[in-house]
Automatic annotation (TrEMBL):
It comes from the Eukaryota. It holds the Pfam family LRR_6. Gene3D superfamilies: Ribonuclease Inhibitor. Its main location: cytoplasm. InterPro entries: Leu-rich_rpt (IPR001611), LRR-containing (IPR052394), LRR_dom_sf (IPR032675). The lineage of its organism: Eukaryota, Viridiplantae, Chlorophyta, Chloropicophyceae, Chloropicales. This is T-complex-associated testis-expressed protein 1. It is found in: Cytoplasm, Cytoskeleton, Cilium axoneme.
Amino acid sequence: MGVEPLKIEIPHHLNRHELFVPALKDLCVKVVAENFVLQPSFGSLDKENKAKVVDLLSLELPLELVGPVIEEEVYWKRRSQSRWSNCELSAHGDSWKQLYFEKNLAQTLENFDPVNEDLEELKRLLAFSSPWVYNLNMKQLPSHMDLQVLLSPSLLSNLFFMKLTYGRHNVGMDYEQSLFGMKLSDCVSLARALEWTETLTYLNLSSNLLDDDRVKMIASGIAENKSISHLDLSHNKIADRGVKALASLLDRRSVLVFLNLRSNQIHVEGGRAIARALKSNKSLLSLNLSLNRIGDEGCRAIIEAATQNESLTTLNLSATAAGESSTKALGNLIRQNTSLARVDASCNDFGEEGGAIVSEALETNKTLQSIDVRMSNVGENHEKAISEMLKSRFTF
């Protein structure tokens, strides 16, 4: 009589995979991930097992702990996407880690209350975030913190792009004008901070209700700065006095290559101040003065100065109330200048005679890539002739 085989009854509440003991290395991976706060290290784990640990790590681990240790982009991608629905990677150096640190810091600054929150904690955040923060885009700063803290070289040593917009979103019936725009005290602290920073290259202060007094204060700081090459002051309230202060920055020592003054309150005297600066400036590549009531005389002065300027490649005088005398200067510029590649003179009042001047001048110019005179009353025939002449240069 044979021995019956042993039968093992499997309880109904157990799944089959629960009967097997996981491999020791898988158990180790789980333990390492669960205790990463106590021992933030991967030791001598190989690449495969290190990746398994990263996949199991909590997304709530302290940044100060994981920042220096975890380089794996997959972790920072998970952490970013769990927090923000809109993650534009290209705006953050195509790095998920950089994106996380930059958006986290910007959000912290936007919500920071200097009265009720600890400034030392903010300084700690700035310091340990520094290696991965290159761009800061703050869209709604409600507080008026000391910008010298933010731009201190000992805290943010890699910052090269900064956009500041003071205000609040979705205020509804709680709207107060005092909630929006930079105050003079902000401009004072920014000016002092700009004297220190050596890495900041792009500074965007658009839409901050900056007037002449405020921009003069900011200009005093930029005058002592040798790193800012891109300055955007568009959509503010800068008039002629403020522009004169900015024009003084365009001397022979200037490092500015991009200046955007679109949509301000610049008139003829401001235009003349810019023109005087252009005569000696050797650094500026792009100048945008569109949507300012500079007038015919102011525009003519700028165009005449640009004719002799050898560095400028892009000039925007769209909707600046340019007229007949500006058109004649524009014709000379097209004939004589060899550095300008793009000119926007649209939405002015040149008339059909002006259209003929531009069209004839283009026949002798071989370097201009685009010139826009649409909606300047030059006539449909001249618009078409200018367009076809430029197109023919790039037809192979």
